[in-house]
Design goal:
272 residues, alpha/beta, Rossmann fold, 2 domains, seven-stranded mixed β-sheet, two-stranded antiparallel sheet, 9 strands, 18% strand
Length: 272
Amino acid sequence: MSLEQIQQMLKAHGISPNKLLGQNFMFETRLYTKLAAYADLDGSDVVLDAGAGFGLLTRYLSEQCRGVVAVEKDPQLAAFLHEEFKDTSNVAVIEGDVLKVQLPPFNKAIAAPPYYLSTQLVLLLLERKVDCSVLIVQREFAERLVAEVGREEYGWLTVVTQQQSEAKILDVVPKDMFYPPPEVDSVILSLKPLKTRPFQVKNEAKFIQLTKWLFTQRNKKLAKALAPYLRSNYKLSKQEAIDIAEKLPFHEQRPRELQPKDFGAIADALPN
């Protein structure tokens, strides 16, 4: 599909790209083959397409796999999708926020979602333990997931992602493959669950909560960064919190210096 064709589609349906919904329509159909190949797509797969737009990718996927779950928040686009796929038995169109709607089972995700959704969508896909996710995302976001310790991009999402999956940046997506072109650079990101996790944690929710907190204090020594967290979450006095924090693993180091597994060790050492 050409730029002119996507512009004509938008005009014909009275739709203007909505910045609040992060709408940048991917119209370069050559990308679809590449996305499917990166996901090792086959006829047995059921795929999530989050932010389906006009369903161009949805249509391609529906011809390659067992089923597609196409989720679209924009009511006008969702209405278009319902009409477009009313006779396509292996496409389920769902109107709503992909983070809030009830999703049927799927085992892979291939999508170019609105970039503001990226963090929460990745967490959702990690939680669902899908076989493979191939997403077009902002380059800066993808670099956070693959960052190494000590890099500026290294943060809580790096740690949480690398504890559960292998993240890879596979390719660059030029801005002129979208309408309107995004202001940021885009890449193709893949996420595949690790067969054996590099470390286990006793409580996943506590691990994520703690890691998020520590990266808000990334340059402080761990004992100092943890004391307010302990006071708030365990209803401790200031001195009690300090005493516990100073006995935890890595208490002399700073969050930005720690390996992902170190955050797991700290989370497991916290009081129940």
